[in-house]
Amino acid sequence: MQSTEQPPPVAIVVSRYNHSITGPLLRGAVETLSRRWPGARPAVLRAPGTFELVALSSAALRTGAFEAVVALGCVIKGQTSHDQHINDAVAQGLAHLAAESGVPVCFGVITAGTDEQARDRAGGSKGNKGAEAMGAALEAIDELRRLRTAAVRNQPEMLAPEAMPPLAGGTDKVAASGLNGKGSP
């Protein structure tokens, strides 16, 4: 969907740890932004690891310069419960930041049991979670812009179901998989 609006300023915070996975996530996120907004360039902040995504996302939000933050990382299960602690802390931290700021903070963190599962979700057979997170950010930005416009114009009818604009991209995994409630593709 082409628009006459300006591209939204978006920050991507990406973990350097497991770079062979987070690199493709970053490319997927940037490509998704570029497809929607040709020429748009996100700000990219590098985090040492997935745990630091929360602090750097918080810092990006505090600048007030971004309409969304996309956090990209990869945690692969090891021999201890370390991965669970990281995953829980990051998920809760990013959700808290989004709720407190009112700015979308999108979760593009792969939480995999194996290296193969991680690769499958970083541009492999299960898609690209970086692209999906950026898609979610852009969709949330669209909705927040629509909400603000309706509020400024004092036109709540702009938010009525029949006034909803078409989606810019598909987000229906069931439809995309061909399942549609049939149990198998």
Largest sheet: 4 strands, parallel
Q: Which stretches are poorly predicted, pLDDT < 50 over at least 5 residues?
A: none
Could you state the order of secondary-structure elements as H and E? Answer: EHEHEHEHEEHH
Question: Which word captures the global form?
Answer: globular
User: N- to C-terminal separation?
Assistant: 29 Å
Instruction: Record the strand order, biggest sheet.
Output: 2-1-3-4
Classify the helix fraction into a percent range: 40-55%
Question: Would you give an account of this structure?
Answer:
With 185 residues, the chain is of the alpha/beta class. 45% of the residues lie in helices and 18% in strands. α1 (19-36) packs parallel to α5 and α2 (53-62) packs parallel to α3. It is globular and about 55 Å long. 34% of the residues are buried.
Please sum up the structure shown.
This protein has 185 residues and is α/β, with parallel strands linked by helices. It contains six helices and six strands.
Features:
alpha/beta, 185 residues, globular, two-stranded antiparallel sheet
Q: Which helices and strands, and how do they pair?
A:
Blueprint: E1 10-15, H1 19-36, E2 43-47, H2 53-62, E3 68-76, H3 82-101, E4 105-112, H4 115-120, E5 122-124, E6 127-128, H5 129-152, H6 173-177
Parallel strand pairs: 1-2, 1-3, 3-4
Antiparallel strand pairs: 5-6
